[in-house]
Specification:
Helix content: 10-25%
Strand content: 15-25%
Number of strands: 13
CATH superfamily: Glutaconate Coenzyme A-transferase
Mean pLDDT: 93
Number of domains: 1
Radius of gyration: 17 Å
Order of helices and strands: HEEEEHEEEHEEEEEHE
CATH architecture: 3-Layer(aba) Sandwich
Low-confidence stretches: none
Structural class: alpha/beta
CATH class: Alpha Beta
CATH topology: Glutaconate Coenzyme A-transferase
């Protein structure tokens, strides 16, 4: 199965030339480190930067250059820094071609819950509500199960929902899955993971058609 870096590497394969891409907090921020050499994309962070680069090397951090998760980042040549109002105008105006988000739960019809666990202190929804309401292409990066081994890919979300029927694809440590009207469609297996293991770890309806290829991570 994949680690968090492996999930980010697989999602980086979904990037296309010329796209503006928003990376959410957590695993999604790692995607900026694995952009294929032949792909030119511009990363946007909702706190106000367009042209976000990979994480800085140790000792080269600038405490004033951070992403939405308050991690230090780099800025590529030509990057622009602006206020939150401008940033959310880009998001709400549908100028972002891809949003990559983390999630606590995803349902088989594409609902996402990624901001609150009842009874626990959380930072709040942040920009997630705007992102899921505005983006046409949302990929979720997440672990397939929680720490107790319980599936996070469900028939219906049990946690407060962030967005309804908005997720298009899910990449986990076990698999790549498309969201279809009929449920989770298995597209690829993580290296060394069997279809049976993915089925066991998925509570929602899993569609398996033909031979499922193993991911290729370059």
């Amino acid at each position: 199965m994949l680690d968090k870096k492996g999930i980010a590497k697989r999602i980086a394969q979904e990037l296309r030339n010329g796209w503006y891409v928003n990376l959410g907090i957590g695993i999604p921020t790692l995607v900026a480190n694995y952009v294929p050499e032949n792909i030119n994309v511009v990363f946007q962070s909702e706190n106000g930067i367009l042209g976000m680069g990979p994480f800085p090397y140790d000792g080269e951090e600038d405490a004033d250059m951070i992403n939405a998760g308050k991690q230090t980042i780099t800025a590529l040549p030509g990057a622009v820094i602006f206020d939150s109002a401008t940033s959310f105008a880009m998001i709400r105006g549908k100028h972002i071609q891809l949003t990559v988000l983390g999630a606590m739960e995803v349902s088989q019809n594409g609902d996402i819950a990624n901001w609150k666990i009842p009874g626990k202190m959380v930072k709040g929804m942040g920009g997630a509500m705007d992102l899921v309401a505005s983006a046409d292409n949302i990929i979720v990066a997440m672990m397939h199960t929680n720490k107790r081994g319980i599936s996070k890919l469900l028939k219906a979300c049990t946690l407060p929902i962030t967005g309804v029927k908005c997720v298009k694809k899910v990449v986990t440590n076990l698999a790549v899955l498309d969201i279809t009207p009929d449920g989770f469609k298995l597209v690829e297996r993580a290296p060394g993971v069997t279809v049976a293991e993915i089925q066991e770890a998925t509570e929602g309806k899993l569609i398996v058609e033909g031979e499922i290829p193993e991911m290729v991570l370059e």
